[in-house]
Amino acid sequence: MPRPDYAYITLTDVTAGEAAVFARWHRDSFVLAPHRVWFASSLAVANGDQDPWPLPAEGRDEDIAAELRRHLASVETP
Length: 78
Prior knowledge:
This protein is mostly helical.
């Protein structure tokens, strides 16, 4: 994604719950506040949405999984 100072990690073949566990660990271990972890989905990018979503700055795996599911539900398929 065309953003300055942006790096990414790709997770493949995972559920929202599995991705949430990794995202929380990454957020809490490597990207400490006030910095944010951002995410996108291949479904969103395939539909032209290049803007990543912010991961909740705090919360449990279940909270993050719910946000990932909200993101997927918001993507309109062609």
